[in-house]
Design goal:
The chain is α+β, with helices and mostly antiparallel strands and about 375 residues long. The chain is built from eleven helices and twelve strands.
């Protein structure tokens, strides 16, 4: 995290601190905004917000990772306006906290983070939730984990302009590193499922960054909404796997988009069952199937990500690998034989760097 200090920037000590982890989604991609199922878990990388209230309505915020060292960005609480930069995640949070009836004043804040930006590991939700946790402490706000996730999603959708679902904010609020958060994104009911005891989790950042506020992600969501409309359902979640033949009658590319979502929901349920039975071989197979669907039907992978998955498929120590996150770059999540995770991750990263020219980062194991 940043070596900047709150005291050096603002001349006093912080009075509140909020933290939140990044997340890796094991399986269940692009299902959340379709009302479906997801299965994220927390990663070691975290975002931290140190904060102290002011006696006016000015917010003064700094972040070495997101802005320039020593730069302080200001806005008025209650008069937030999009600026199309990282400060919009903070502004979105304050705006929708106020809309939810919570009283805020001005504040000073320092953001520091080890969650890599644009790697498909939910750096934005970690920022939103850590900011809300700091504000909750500073202004004595009554705000539970689910309400926090809902406000974070509104900030992302309505202020930043990225039409993501609620998985990332729910994971930042509720996920931990020992379990996966099996979440029904429609009802927001969730269960914590223990991670497989006989496998190592690997997360490898490809070095290819994405930006969900740009068009491709929002286009996919619009395609899903149109497919649901043509199928006569509220959301694609309402199409059971047994009715896949109905999906096959849709025009392209809606047919493939809907097929991914319907089959991916089924894969999440199968993955939860595999985890509960400690069947890492089956779980790995589901990872590969999910990746193929994201690559071919949903078309959100890129050649660099496909290369990592191909390298993984040739490694005997690996059970499975798949693109994780919204796509168009980002990271790959893999399952390796217990005890082999670090060695395998470094081997795959080295081979990928040689063949792609990219600079990958092994994020898990940490």
């Amino acid at each position: 995290m940043s070596e900047q200090s709150f005291a050096a920037l603002f001349g006093r000590a912080p009075t509140a601190v909020g933290e939140a982890s990044g997340r890796v989604n094991l399986i269940g991609e692009h299902t959340d905004y379709n009302g479906g199922y997801v299965l994220p878990t927390a990663i070691p990388q975290r975002t931290r917000v140190e904060l102290a209230p002011r006696d006016d309505d000015r917010a003064r915020v700094a972040s070495a990772e997101l802005g320039r060292p020593g730069e302080i960005v200001e806005f008025r609480v209650g008069a937030e306006r999009p600026r199309h930069g990282w400060i919009d995640y903070v502004q979105g949070v304050t705006r929708f906290l106020a809309e939810a009836g919570h009283r805020l004043g001005g504040f000073e804040a320092l953001i520091s983070s080890t969650v890599p930006i644009g790697s498909g590991l939910s750096s934005s939700a970690a920022l939103e939730v850590s900011t809300m946790r700091a504000l909750r402490e500073a202004f004595r706000i009554d705000l539970d984990a689910v309400a926090m996730a809902q406000i974070g999603r509104r900030a992302e959708n309505e202020f930043v302009g990225a039409q993501t679902g609620i998985m990332d904010q729910m994971a930042a609020s509720l996920a931990d590193r020992g379990t996966a958060l099996f979440l029904d994104t429609r009802s927001l009911e969730y269960q914590k499922v223990p991670l497989p005891g006989d496998a190592d989790l690997i997360v490898l950042s490809s070095g290819v960054a994405h930006n969900h506020a740009k068009g491709d992600y929002n286009t996919r969501r619009a395609e899903c909404e149109r497919a649901a409309e043509l199928l006569g359902v509220a959301q694609l979640r309402d199409v059971p796997i047994e009715a896949l033949a109905r999906v096959e009658a849709l025009p392209e590319p809606l047919r493939r988009r809907a097929r991914h979502v319907v089959t991916e929901d089924a894969r999440v349920l199968a993955a939860v069952d595999a985890m509960r039975h400690d069947d890492v071989v089956r779980l790995g197979e589901l990872f590969y199937q999910s990746h193929a669907s994201m690559r071919d039907d949903y078309e959100v992978s890129v050649p660099e990500i496909d290369l990592i998955v191909e390298l993984a498929a040739r490694d005997r120590e690996l059970f499975g690998a798949r693109l994780t996150g919204g796509g168009f770059g980002g990271s790959v999540v893999m399952l390796a034989r217990l005890g082999a995770g670090r060695e395998v991750a470094e081997r795959i990263a080295a081979a990928y760097a040689r063949e792609s020219g990219q600079s990958p980062t092994v994020l898990v194991p940490g």
